[in-house]
Write the structure tokens for this entry.
Amino acid sequence: MTGAPTPRLLVVDDDRTFRVSTAELLRQDGYEVELAKDASEAAEVLAERRFDLVLMDLRMPGLSGTRFLEVLRTRGERVPVLMISGFGTVDAAVEALQIGADDFLTKPVDPDLLSAKVEELLDRRPVPRARGGALAGIVGRSPGIRAVFDQILRVGPSETTVLITGETGTGKELVARAVHEASERAGKAFVPVNCASLAEGVLESELFGHVRGSFTGAVTDKVGLFKAADGGTLFLDEVGDMSQRLQQRLLRAIQEREVQPVGATRPTSVNVRVVAATHRDLDEETRAGRFREDLLYRLRVFEIRLPPLRERRPDIPLLIEAALERLHGRSDGRSPHLRCSPLAVRLMQSYAWPGNVRELFSAVESAAIRADGGVIQAHDLPETVRQPGGRTVPERATPGSFGERPDMDRDSVLRALEDAGGVRVQAARLLGVSRTTLWRRMKELGIEE
């Protein structure tokens, strides 16, 4: 693609002849290639630069390829790895794939097969794109969510600290991961921590680490999450719940780019991008004296506000489909792929979703358990969704019975048309009626095409 950066590959092999010849082949294919003769040298190169793919020998002197791969995956390194070996046993291939290799080839490697495999693995990379109503797992086409996509793609490539705000269940961690994937740090670790779920002392040790003997129970040194995220992104979820003392320590870590483990006598430098999130109004928390104003300024260099689901109703059919796809994938394809009846979709679009996307996914999973015949019907939905505000909703739509259909008044029809983007077939589905019925009702209500 014109203007796209040239993929950078790392070849790790103790056989110099194979290493050099493979690099030459890959350079002829248009890739930027660097070489390492063993795991130790590869670790140094990976710490300095980002790569799009690593081609690694399975058995090398010192640290083997499988052991090195295990270390990489434990550290959160997500760079794709193509394992290559002269010992092409099934057991070796299975072991490499279980540890986290993306594919496996045996020597002697056919040049055409190698080129095809490299191209295939590069095409699998999680490159963030706002296409088809989704970006890095975030689903939607509404104006509010499209604005979020734009903000992610704008701020992602920078080193700017990001604050994500929004109600509980709106998908703040998904957005944080998308920001990470859109950055130059995408090949490095993404380390999340929920600041509200841990006691102050535990959170301090988790974030900054501790040295042996610094407190009762500290029997070994512990590397903190700041250090674990070195080179990558640290996601501080529910940062508004952090104590004043830890806020001070966090501010210093961001300003000085260094952390001091509990009980240590000197700080250590870190290279971390901080992305934070909260459901709280931090301006109000600051006015009340519960959140430091200087820390708020540091965190809110760039703010992404996630709209609640009630403000993005046109996205609900897409989210329902995403939830069903996830359930189908979780069953490894053993369960049939479910779909929702038009009335069930319409009921879900009319519900307020106080728990936002998280609640919707739970409701779809609950309904899927109850559903028969491969279709989720209105009566399969949780009662809170079927009867919002205590109003009983009919099990089936009855086309043409307008007098008994409060959902076919002028406002409801206009809202369905708006949610469907003016597409009458889709609006009819949302209302649970045929296209002809909707057309007749539009004429009766004086609604123009």
